[in-house]
Amino acid sequence: MKLPNLITAMTPFPYSIERTAPIDQARALMDEHQVRHLPVTDEHDLVGIITDRDLRSALAVPEGKRVVSNLTVEDIFEDEVYCVDLETPIEEVLAAMAARHIGSAIVTRKGRLAGVFTATDACRVFAEFLAENFPRPDDGAAA
Predict the structure, then answer these.
(1) How far apart are CA 61 and CA 46, in angstroms?
(2) Does residue 95 lie in a domain region?
């Protein structure tokens, strides 16, 4: 029984956004590519992450109380991000994500952004693992 590894489970070469970008640009990028996590960079160096939840919270403030045109990713992103090396065992990443109650891990290779591993990736890979290793009997099989 072969366990999945991080490199086959993660989303490689994720989209990222510069910390100085307007939040509307982050929202558009997430919507266009149907992602919920964007690594945040500063001149190509990883500095954090922004999630759809961060954006929803920022945009939930009533119109009269916020200045959307002035908000940037830097105003709302999380700079304490869970980063793992590409060689980290997937079970270690899963345990850490569960313990921290977080939905993603940024995956790096030699300190550079390589991918993102999300709870959705974990569910997909686990479903594939179960189907491959514990196949269900055919519905029409005789008992």
Answers:
(1) 28
(2) yes
